[in-house]
Design goal:
It holds the Pfam family Cys_Met_Meta_PP. By secondary structure, the chain is an alpha/beta fold. The protein contains 17 helices and 14 strands.
Length: about 475
């Protein structure tokens, strides 16, 4: 595909630069050569909200403050020869020539500009789901017979994709490792270096909330000649993986970015060269597999992005408050904002200022039975939250990960990943007041404990 057809994917005028580059005042890297890592000091100054605000504002067709929705699947031309020129790559979306919405849609294109600004990448392409984004990237980068080294703790659907579907359908092989062990990561890559194409991690792991050391992992990826792909679904705004050296950032936009639990969507943020290759008419996974985002969905997400920063700050604020109070009650709580979390210092050093430590926390109740009993009271007795999968909603969502979102993993795989049977994953919402919600949590916990004591007393009575 000719360059003109794809120049629209360049969305960030200050893009990441090469190894011998120096960071400018905005934390971007300039220079010549290969990819460069931005220093932590520069990265810490990044403001994703400011980057989003710098994207050009699209007005509606008749001057509306909101952009219009281009709902067409196909696009007309004035001259017959224009179609030939578009398919030959001579004319493209950069000049307002569109072929078909599976390839590129104006409304979806605008959301891509916003996502690229959010993550600080050259380009972005928005997809129908987060899994569509992940699978399309891996298929494009690996190809048949390629290999992925991946974190052993991943969302269950991603784990199933890597462990079962891609090996069966595409011949892509995968090795799961402890990404905290850099030497183990390096050894896994070198065990079949020629075939290994991708190092795949989650910025914050689902559900254990382990934080990936992206600066160190990106250095290993560069040294070994492969791409670092980071899923940033849990921490939009909080962390900017591309500023830390990640080559590609993927999102399930359905979660925090959408915020309404009413949309399924995904995004791929990375180099323009990658997006260009994925949109290629002959060889592109986006063009040929068709994981297309609907223009109406793109419009809705675009309208929600301006207040993402406000929502993420409140999610993080509530999660920190709950985690601190839960710990004081003697509960086993996992939250990166707590100083006893093994990655607290790491996240503090790489996070963007003012966004806290994210809106996810885990509560380990020891057994699935205890976890289910607490969640029952939290939803059905005190109305603290909802028993549901997914995350990023304005209400608190909770699920027992081992039997739900990580159920695709075997017991041995869950044990290696640190997923205990009683682990409750909470996506902390911001509806109601903090004190109102905390009182609801305490009441549910008290009821659960009361029932436990009653059962113990009954057991003693029966034995007597």
């Amino acid at each position: 595909m000719a360059e003109t057809e794809q120049s629209m994917v360049f969305t960030n005028p200050k893009k990441r630069g090469p190894k011998d580059a120096t960071a400018d005042d905005d934390g971007f890297v300039t220079g010549t050569g290969d990819w460069a890592a931005v220093s932590t000091k520069r990265v810490a100054r990044n403001d994703p909200a400011g980057a989003l605000a710098s994207v050009r504002h699209e007005f509606g067709e008749h001057g509306g403050v909101n952009m219009s929705i281009e709902a067409s699947a196909t696009f007309t031309v004035m001259e017959a020869d224009t179609l030939r020129r578009m398919f030959a790559g001579e004319l493209g979306p950069d000049r307002d020539f569109f072929i078909y919405s599976r390839h590129c849609n104006p409304t979806v294109l605008n959301l891509g500009r916003q996502m690229a600004a959010l993550e600080g990448t050259e380009a972005a392409y928005c997809t129908a789901s987060g899994m569509a984004a992940i699978s399309s990237v891996l298929i494009q980068l690996c190809g048949a017979g390629g290999r992925v080294v991946a974190s052993r703790c991943l969302y269950g659907g991603t784990h199933a994709l890597l462990a079962h579907f891609l090996p069966r359908a595409c011949g892509i092989r995968v090795e799961f490792v402890d990404i905290d062990d850099i030497e183990a990561v390096r050894a896994a890559i070198r065990s079949d270096k020629e075939a290994t194409r991708v190092l795949y991690v989650e910025m914050m792991s689902n559900p254990t909330l382990a934080v990936a050391d992206v600066p160190r992992l990106s250095a290993v990826a560069r040294e070994e000649g492969l791409k670092l792909v980071v899923d940033n679904t849990f921490t939009p705004m909080v962390v900017s993986p591309a500023r830390l050296g990640a080559d590609v950032v993927v999102h399930s936009v359905s979660k925090f970015i959408s915020g309404g639990a009413d949309i399924i969507a995904g995004a791929i943020c990375g180099p323009a060269s990658l997006v260009k290759s994925m949109m290629d008419l002959q060889h592109g996974s986006l063009m040929l597999l068709g994981p297309t985002m609907n223009a109406k969905v793109a419009f809705e997400i675009s309208e929600r992005l301006p207040h993402l920063s406000l929502r993420m700050k409140e999610h993080s604020k509530r999660a920190m408050a709950y985690a601190t109070r839960m710990k004081k009650l003697g509960l086993k709580v996992i939250y990166p904002g707590l100083e006893d979390h093994p990655h607290h210092s790491l996240l503090a050093s790489i996070a963007n200022p003012d966004y806290g430590f994210g809106g996810m926390l885990c509560l380990d109740m020891g057994s699935e039975e205890r976890a289910n009993r607490l969640m029952h009271h939290l939803q059905n007795t005190t109305q603290f939250g909802l028993m549901a999968v997914s995350l990023g909603y304005y209400e608190t969502l909770m699920s027992c990960s081992g039997s739900s979102t990580s159920s695709e993993m075997s017991p041995e795989e869950k044990a290696r990943a640190g997923i205990s049977p009683g682990l409750i994953r909470m996506s902390v919402g911001y509806s109601g007041t903090l004190e109102q919600r905390w009182n609801q949590f305490e009441r549910a916990l008290a009821l659960m404990q009361q029932q436990h004591h009653q059962q113990q007393d009954a057991a003693i009575y029966c034995k007597a």
